[in-house]
Design goal:
The protein contains 14 helices and 13 strands. The protein has 388 residues and is an alpha/beta fold. It has a single domain, classed as Luciferase-like domain (TIM Barrel, Alpha-Beta Barrel), CATH 3.20.20.30. 47% of the residues are buried.
């Protein structure tokens, strides 16, 4: 059985690295960005699945952020699966992924077909990222928010049944029912796309070990990462699966700063702090910095709807997310500091990381610097891949 060991003395292999895709018009620029990421040597490019963004309209003003001068609202998102297909068809090597969609808004039969279609367009280079969902993308649109984890588990079973079946499928579940249902589209070259789960809690980690091909949590400490990965591997072994076949990744928010003074300023910016309003942080993280979750129950995933948040409420929420919390929830600092931190995760078992650059939310004028810094992070980690 896996022992959940935190660190090995030497990283076993190099870390593959992903970057975010462009989420807003013009679409041609999103394709160009994917092609550039491929030419720069990144391994994957990812799109979030949002109808509603995490920043309240009440703070999306020129007075609060320079981004408001270039983007009319904070809720401007391309459909990720469409962009994955377009980018996959326009590139040759880079993988395309969604981080992550849910099975509340997307019926598993349609999602199964969507994912196969994307994978055909991408030539077998797509990754289907799934999570339990966020209230902000569900409740405002008249969709019932109920038992999201149970729905996800059942939907994943349905998706795999449809991908594997050679004829009609019958299924009777709590959430979904299939009667003589078919999905005639075959997986690209006989292999369906890998499914990665955004899992954090015990139940989701167990589902990941039993049913998923990869793990995609959002920033957690290296110590927690190693422990949770151990849970996933034990679950896989109980299900007679190869735990090493499950790719351990992480969606990492990144703040690039050339010095401590700049980093302190970025961590204190309201928009940066509000990005963590709906992220499930541990009670220990809040307590460590003398703060507490802004939401009753601990997580904004199930309660936070940005379009309903007034300026006063946004300021109240941001006041809980103190700079120390931002530091704990990000990879931050100089390229060398960020690369060193990734190696800490690698020793805990990480084999892939998606670097989500949030520096422009703190200072739009640092956009060019921060994306160059991310490229430098990749170059700093390249020797590890050569030595592995």
């Amino acid at each position: 059985m896996s022992n959940g060991c935190l660190f090995d003395s030497v990283p076993p292999m190099h870390v593959t690295m992903g970057v975010p895709g462009r989420i807003m018009p013009p679409a041609s620029k999103a394709i160009e960005l994917a092609q550039r990421a491929e030419s720069e040597g990144f391994d994957s490019i990812w799109w979030p699945c949002h109808l509603m963004g995490w920043i309240p309209d009440s703070v999306w003003t020129p007075e609060m952020t320079g981004l408001a001068e270039f983007q009319r609202n904070p809720h401007m998102y391309f459909d990720p699966l469409t962009m994955m297909g377009a980018a996959g068809a326009s590139t040759e090597k880079i993988r395309v992924g969604v981080c992550v969609t849910d099975t509340i808004r997307r019926h598993p039969a349609m999602l199964a077909q969507n994912a196969l279609t994307v994978d055909h367009l991408a030539g077998g280079r797509s990754i289907l990222g799934l999570g339990s969902g966020e209230r902000m993308n569900v409740a405002p649109y008249g969709i019932e928010w109920s038992k999201p984890v149970g729905r996800l588990e059942e939907a994943l079973v349905v998706i795999r049944k449809l991908w594997e079946a050679e004829g009609p499928v019958d299924f009777e579940g709590q959430f979904f029912k299939l009667e003589s249902a078919v999905l005639g589209l075959e997986p690209y070259e006989g292999t369906p796309p890998p499914v990665w789960l955004a899992a954090h809690g015990p139940r989701m980690l167990d589902i990941c070990g039993r049913l998923a091909d990869g793990w995609l949590p959002t920033n957690i400490s290296p110590e927690d990462y190693g422990q949770k990965l151990g849970v996933i591997r034990e679950s896989a072994e109980r299900a007679d699966r190869d735990p090493d076949a499950i790719t351990p990744s992480m969606l990492a928010y990144v703040l690039c700063a050339p010095d401590e003074e700049t980093l302190a300023r970025l961590c204190d910016q309201t928009l940066v702090r509000l990005l963590f309003a709906a992220v499930g942080l541990s009670p220990e993280t809040w307590a460590k910095h003398g703060s507490s979750s802004p939401f009753e129950g601990g997580s904004g995933f199930h309660s936070y709807v940005p379009t309903e948040v007034s300026l006063a409420e946004a300021q109240r929420v941001a006041s809980h997310i103190v700079p120390g919390v931002v530091r704990d929830a990000t990879l931050h600092g100089t390229p060398q500091q960020i690369a060193d931190r990734i190696l800490d995760y690698q020793r805990a078992g990480l084999r892939d990381v998606v670097l989500w650059n949030i520096t422009p939310f703190g200072d739009p004028s640092m956009s060019a610097y921060s994306f160059k810094a991310m490229q430098e992070v990749k170059e700093l980690l390249a020797p590890a891949s050569t030595a592995a």
